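RECORD TYPE: inverse folding
INPUT: structure tokens
STRUCTURE:
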């Protein structure tokens, strides 16, 4: 499970980085297209030619933004499902870790009260099991927290894609 969550989070980080660069490129492309249209209007084009160029640039950018927005929406849904799985796993490991910690405390109290060899070895055996549980829970907790950050980045990306569509001037 540990490898799965680490691998999934790395994959999402790479995807987010790619999509954020793509969103940046689209926004720069939109600015560039506007500048190109301005220059073309300065070079004595007819009104019909200017209108056709503007329409094709707007349609191309709208299609790219719409495709990006759909990709982000799909990935967002998938990510929420994965976060749910890892939250469940985290809850189960929290219960197991707390149970072993309580058993460790009881074993320590028992070893203080009793003089038996078994009661002296029991806390050591439980501690040997408790340490890996704590480590695993620590990794799960931190990775799920990072996945929350990824979710926030996806929401910002989604809002950016939706916002750029709203902010476009009508021509």
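DESIGNED SEQUENCE:
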């Amino acid at each position: 499970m540990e490898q799965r969550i680490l691998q999934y989070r790395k994959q999402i980080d790479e995807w987010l980085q790619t999509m954020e660069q793509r969103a940046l490129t689209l926004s720069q492309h939109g600015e560039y297209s506007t500048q190109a249209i301005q220059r073309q209007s300065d070079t004595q084009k007819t009104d019909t030619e200017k209108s056709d160029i503007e329409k094709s640039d707007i349609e191309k950018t709208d299609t790219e933004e719409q495709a990006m927005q759909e990709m982000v929406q799909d990935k967002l849904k998938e990510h929420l499902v994965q976060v749910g799985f890892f939250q469940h796993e985290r809850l189960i490991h929290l219960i197991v870790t707390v149970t072993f910690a309580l058993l460790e405390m009881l074993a320590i109290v028992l070893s203080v009260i009793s003089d038996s060899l078994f009661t002296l070895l029991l806390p050591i055996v439980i501690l040997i099991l408790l340490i890996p549980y704590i480590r695993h829970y620590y990794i799960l907790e931190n990775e799920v927290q990072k996945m929350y950050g990824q979710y926030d980045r996806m929401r910002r990306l989604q809002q950016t894609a939706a916002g750029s569509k709203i902010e476009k001037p009508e021509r």
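NOTES: Residues 31-50, 166-171 have pLDDT under 50 and may be disordered.
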